[in-house]
Amino acid sequence: MSAGDDTLEKIGTRVRVRGLVQGVGFRPFVWRLAQEERLAGHVLNDAEGVLAEVWGGFEATGRFLERLKTDSPPLSRVDEVVAEAILGQTLTLDAGFRIVSSVAGDVSTGIVPDAATCPECLRDTLAPSDRRHGYAFTNCTHCGPRLSIIEAIPYDRAHTSMAPFVMCSDCQAEYDNPADRRFHAQPNACPACGPTLWFEENGQRNETQNPIGWTAQRLGSGQIVAIKGIGGFHLAVDATRPDAVERLRARKNRPHKPLALMVGDVEQARAICEVNNAEAGLLTSGAAPIVLLKIREDNGLAGNLAPGQDRLGVMLPYTPLHHLLMAEVGKPIVLTSGNLSEEPQVIDNSEARTKLSRIADGFLMHDRAIVNRLDDSVVRVSAAGRTVLRRARGYAPAPLPLPGPFSKAPQVLAMGGELKSTFCLLRDGQAVVSQHMGDLEHRHALQDLRKNLELYRGIFRFDPEIIAVDGHSDYLSSQLGRQIASETGARVIEVQHHHAHLAACLAEAGVPPGDDETLAIILDGSGLGTDGTIWGGELLLGGYRGFERAGHFLPVALPGGAAAVREPWRNLIAHLQAAFGPGYRSMLEGTGIFDPLRHKNLPLVDQMVSKGVNTPFSSSAGRLFDAVAAALGVCADKQTYEGQTGSMLETMARPFLQEESGYPVQTTQEGGTILSWKPLWEALLADLRAGEERGRISARFHLALVGSLAETGCRIASAHGLDRIALSGGVMQNSILSDGLAARIEAQGLKVLLPRDLPANDGGISLGQATIAAACAAG
Q: For the chain, which domains are there?
C-alpha cells in the first residue's frame, strides 16, 4: 500500500477472539499488530473475549488475522478467531487504531491462571537502577496474580483486590500506554503506590526496613516463618536443618508426609535432585508447579523431608517476593502449605495470626488481599509423559476445550467427589474445572467449596440446567449439589464414581460422543458401585452414556469400615482370610508377619470378617496395597496420610524392577473377569520365609499387577473390537503401574489414554461427571 492510499476508504472486518485473552496483554497486542499492518479501527474486551473492528486492504487484513493466532502473548490461549465483513460502514485509514473500554455482558471468556514472574519483571526487580528495585509485587501483562485476586469479570482493576491501591502517575502512565507491557496490567504497582510488605513477631509489627532480609535471618537461625504468597500462606524452614524440619512436623502434626521445597534456580535444583529437560521446562514454566524429582544421594538436605521416598517436590520462585527471599537465603527452604493439619491453606492475615501462631515464630505479611485460595500445583514426569497430580495455581481455572458435540450441551454443574474436591462448569463446548480444594470431610474445605461455587457462578453468570453428583448419597458434595438443584430447579443426574474417571479421560483426550466406546482400567481407594459395594479395582467397558463392569478385583472385607483405610494391618488380615480361609494363621509361620500384630485383637477382627459385622466388601486396589505394605512391615499399624503405603511400596520397588518378574495372579470368569490373589499371597509369603529383600518383594507385587491387568485388559478390548484402553484412578498415580501398563498395552498395538492436564485421582472426576451428564441429556 502506498502512502497515498492511507486515506482511501477500505472494507471493514469484525473479529471475535475467544479463549484466554483477557488480562494477558491481548488488546495492546492487537493494537501493535494493527499498527504494523496499517489497519484502522478499534479493539475492546467484552464478556465473550476480545472484539476488534479493523479497516484495511485484503492482504493486510489476512496477515492480521493469521498473526492473531501465531504471534499471541505468552499467557494467552486463542481457541477461536471468527471474522465477518462489516457491511454498510466505512472508515478512513487515517482514523488510526484505538483501544476502547471494556463492555460488560454475559460471560463466556476464561479466567487466566496466576503466572510466574516473567524475565522482564525479574530484571526490573533486581536492577538497582530500576524504580521497582527490590519490590515484591512487580508484575506486567505477562505475569503476576490473576485468579487469586479476581472478584468479577471483566478483568479490570476495580474487580480485583488491587482496587484499593491507586496508581501513582508513573504507574498510570505505563497503564495507559499501549506500547508498554504494563498497559492495562490490572495489578500494576510500584513501591510508591502498591502493596507493602512487613515482618511480624510476638504479635507486633517489626520496624525493619528490610522484611525479606529479616525473614532470611530467621530462617537461617532455624525458626519457622509463615509467608503470605500469591494464593495463600506457606510455612518455611531451612531445608538443610533436620531440627527445624522436625520442629515444623511436630507443630503442624505432619509426622511423615513429604514436604515441598523451594530452590533459587534450576542449577540449585540439580544440586539436590536429578532434573531432565522436561522437568526443567516445567520448573521454569509460567505455571511454576511443584515438580516431583529424583533425590540425589549427596544432597546436603535434612534427611526427614520425605521419609521413605525417593522423590522430592521442588519448585522455583514464582513471585518477586520469592525471588528476593531466595536470593537472600541462598539455599533450599521447605515451603509447605500454611494450614492446620488437613485444613485448607490460610489466606487472610488475621486468620494467619490466629491459626498459625502456634506453628510459626514469625510472619512475612503484605496488604494485598487474596480473594481466591490457590494451593501449589503438583506435576510429575515419567516414561508415560507429564502428569498433573494436583491442579491449582498456574493451571486452574483455564478452560478445557471439549470435543465438538459438547458445544450444544446444556449448562452442567458437576460437584466432584468427597476427596481432592473440585467442581466443573460445562458450557459452550468448554469445561472450567476449579482449583483443588481438599477433602470435604474437613469443615473448612466444605466452606471453601461453597465460597468458590458462589464466586464461579457469579463470575461466569452460570445458571446450571443440570447438576451432576456422585452416586454416593453421603458425599457432602452430592448433598450440596442436590441442595443447589432444589434452589435453582436444575435436574440432578447421578454418576457412578469410576464411570466419571473413565469419562474424564475420554474428554481430556478429545474423544467425542459416538466414538467413545473404550475399555478403562480404573484403580483407586473407593467409590460406591452400582451393586452397593465399594469398588476400586475395575475394568469398565463403555463411554459417556453408560458402561458395564467387564472385570474387577476380588471383593475383600474391610474390617471396621473406615478404620481399615487408616490401619493397613486390618486389610492384611482380611486379604489373608480371603485367600486361605479361617486357618490363614498357619500360613504365616516363619514370615515375621505376626511380630507387629501381636498386640492387636486378631480374634475380634477374625470374627468380624467371618460374621460380616461392620465389614463392607471392597474391590479396592488401594486396600490391596495396604495389605501388602502391612505384610512387609510398612505402616502396618497406621498410615498418617492418604496413599502413604502405595508411595512407600513404589519407592521400595523401583531399584529391583528391571531384574524381577511378577507374582502369579488368578483370573476367573464369573459374570466378568475376576482377579484374585491367593497365588500372589502364597508366593509373597514364601519370599518372606526365605528372607527376600522387602524391595524385591514389592517389585514382584507391582509387576504382578502390571502383567495381569495388561493381559486382561488387552484380551477384553480385543474381544470387543476396541483399539484403546484408558488408565485412571488415584492408584494410577503410581508411576510403576501407569508406565508399565502403558508400555505393555502399547506393545500390543493398542492406544493408551492417560490423564495429563487433570489428576487421575478424584481431582479429575468433576470433568467426567459433567461430560456424562451432558451426553446423557443430549440422548
A: 3-99 (3.30.70.100), 197-366 (3.90.870.40), 400-506+762-778 (3.30.420.360)
